[in-house]
Amino acid sequence: MTSETAIVRDEPQQIFRDRREAGRVLARLLEHYRTDPDVIVLGLARGGVPVAWEVAAALRAPLDTLIVRKLGAPGNPEYAIGALASDGRVVVNDDMVRALRLTDEQLRSIARAEARELTRREAAYRDGRAPVNVSGRTVILVDDGLATGASMFAAVEALRAEEPKRIVVAVPAAPESTCREFGALVDDMVCATMPSPFRAVGDSFWNFSQVTDEEVHTLLTTPTLGGTTPTADPVAVLRAAALEAPAGVPPEQALIDLVGDARFVLIGESSHGTAEFYAARAAITGWLISEHGFTGVACEADWPDAYRVDRYVRGLGTDNSPTHALSGFERFPAWMWRNTQVREFVEWLRLHNDQRRRTGHECAGFYGLDLYSMHRSMRRVIEYLERVDPAAARRAVQRYACFDRVSEEDGQAYGFAAAFGAGESCQAEVVRQLVDLQRGAVDLIGTGDGEAHFDALRNAWTVRDAEAYYRAMFGSRVNSWNLRDQHMADTLDTLTEHLSRPGHPARIVVWAHNSHVGDARATEMAADGQLSLGQLVRERHGKHCRTLGFTTATGTVTAASRWDGAAERKAVRAPLPSSIEELLHDIGMPALYLRTDRPSDVAEILRIPRLERAIGVIYQPGTERQSHYFHTRAAERYDAIIHIDHTTALEPLVPDSTWSAGTTPETYPTGL
User: Fold this and answer.
1) Are 205 and 18 in contact (CB under 8 A)?
2) Gap between the Cα atoms of 107 and 115, Å rounded
3) Which CATH class is domain 241-370+502-660?
4) What phi-psi label fits residue 578: left (phi over 0), alpha (psi between -120 and 50 degrees) or beta?
5) Phi and psi, residue 158, nearest 5°
6) Start and end of every Phosphoribosyltransferase domain (predicted)?
């Protein structure tokens, strides 16, 4: 599979078996309210009541219903123009009313009809019982999902008039925009999933059959306090299963059990700037290389920069220290690879390889999988051809001259011009150059170093895929992401083939962010067609792939505030409620390891959709929920998880005054 064509999936993302399972998922995300004695759960009738019953039972809280009727447009009752609450409060979408040119009398007629139905339902559900008093209480409002949110908005407005202590809205599925809107409106907003694209609430359920009045009546009269067997405390279950992982390194036997005979071990990180992630990853990788015959490490790094490091660790090239070898990483974010932890690993790998050479064994390598090095890769292709085939080098110069109109590192400017017709597309030229290099492979290898030709060919592929990536940047975000991860997967496969020997297939460790290492199919982004390197390796290699994710709760991190910005040492905010980070933090261990790929209570708990944090090279604490969290099923995303509760910022090899000044004060609002 090449990265020329993005894969787009547009089928509905059916997450929950039915409303009852959705309620159990929500209950897991609301566990922190179990200790609040003032909690009461209100289900919006009718569809929200089965969901709310499960929440109330799990929280050991009383259950009631709040009846809200949607005001449907004339001739199209499913098209909501507003909502009516049981206290007579009416909420109307003025834009829709104007668009449909509805008169006041039409609105009153619709509201009167719905008021009659609301009164009927009150009588059918309550058997004469008065609604519970919510004044001064924490009220969790539950529905089976939100689309426009009109009914929930009316419910919130009606509830606010009763002066509760706290209003929490919880739903299994809703569009991200609706979740954000309610997040600013209420004290806490819990959306188990935010499918994208969002078409209808029912698309998130296998069974979305209509709830009857009889079902609502039965659920409201079935006790939730003491009426069910309490579920096991998830924190206690995870604590009992967790293994201590000092400094983030699990026990050796646990790693042996996880890795087995896998050929690919993908080790992630939940930030690009956490020292403990880099150190633990290096320790695990060193053990895999020295004790289990792994061939090397392939990183989320540009090919030519990593190739320079590879020359050094093999005792080749002109660099005389790991610091010099890493100096090729000049592009933002330089600290991602030019840091003290990577320097120590590179020096260890050089010493390991020196010993391997003395005993007549093959060396382990250091490789890059990424595609941002378009211009540097062009230079590498030309430099190689100038040594082995000057005529071919002149053709390459002519073809790559197509890019001369943009500055060397400004691939985005090229992509913008090519995508919008403001400049020539170089697609045909880079493809011709790649084909030319591939056709001459046998002759060229015969004239020089086979490793050098492989390097040139990978650089030509990088130019080809980078050109497509930069053009795609100005279209669908998912398309450009997919092109990049497909390029990394293709590079990994080609590298594996290159390093394999008869009877001895290559075994490679991959270093990349959790966003790439984790299986995208276990996240809400899958509904938008997004895939990941980890997903592709799993699909292509099955049981020969193992994925390991890292998480943290608090500490500091090295990140920028904007693209091309300075490296800063920032404080990591405490994890959000309902996140995997909060759950693992509550276990109370400094560093732990959990296996998630085998049927177990642990897997069941971590299969529940939860928020997961992703800090990249940019960290914006002020908008953390929107910028850095997404929903995931961790047990399906990774084969194992390492959690290091408190972590520290990665130290750049050349820290500037901004980084040295220390952490950003925590002055951000807490309600985001």
Assistant:
1) yes
2) 12
3) alpha beta
4) left
5) -65, -40
6) 21-177
pLDDT tens-place string over residues 310-330: 999 999 989 999 999 999 999
H helix or E strand, kind and range, residue 573? none
> CB atoms < 10 A from the CB of 190, how many?
23
Compute the distance between CA of residue 327 and CA of residue 377 in angstroms, rounded to an integer. 16
User: Which tokens belong to 420?
Assistant: 């919008």
Q: Is the pLDDT of residue 182 over 60?
A: yes
What are the respective helix, strand and coil percentages of the chain, to the nearest 5? Answer: 50, 20, 35
Provide the residue type at 119 as one letter: T
Position 80 scores a pLDDT of 66
Q: pLDDT band for position 176 (50/70/90)?
A: confident
What are the extents of the domains in the chain? 19-231, 241-370+502-660, 372-475
Evaluate whether 594 touches 242 at the Cβ level (below 8 Å): yes
CATH number belonging to the domain at 19-231, selected among 3.40.50.720, 3.40.50.2020, 2.60.40.10, 3.40.50.300:
3.40.50.2020
The model's pLDDT over 222-250, given as tens digits with 9 standing for 90+, comes to 887 654 444 578 899 999 999 999 999 99
Quick one: tokens of 55? 């929440």
Task: Answer whether 586's CB lies under 8 Å from 605's CB.
Answer: no
Ranked by mean pLDDT, the top range of 218-227, 450-459, 627-636, 641-650 is 641-650
Give the Cα-Cα-Cα angle 436, 429, 452 (nearest 5 degrees): 45
- CB count, 10 Å around CB of 189? 20
411 neighbors 471 (Cβ within 8 angstroms): no
Please say whether the beta carbons of 437 and 382 come within 8 A.
no
Q: Do domains 19-231 and 241-370+502-660 have the same CATH topology?
A: no
Pairing of strands 591-595, 640-647: antiparallel
- Tell me the pLDDT band of 285, cut-offs 50, 70 and 90: very high
Average of pLDDT values for 399-408? 74
Choose among 646, 546, 581, 591: nearest CA to 249: 591
pLDDT tens digits along 453-471 = 899 999 999 999 988 888 8
Q: Return the axis-axis angle of helices 450-472 and 374-388, rounded to nearest 10°.
A: 150
Cα dist from 526 to 193, 198, 521, 618, whole Å: 12, 12, 5, 23
Burial 587-624 (b: 16+ CB within 10 A, else e): bebebbbbbbeeeeebbebbbbbbbbbbbbbebbbeeb
- The tokens describing 360, both together, are 């007549």
CA-based nearest residue to 349, from 591, 511, 550: 511
Reading the block at residue 376, the tokens are 């540097």
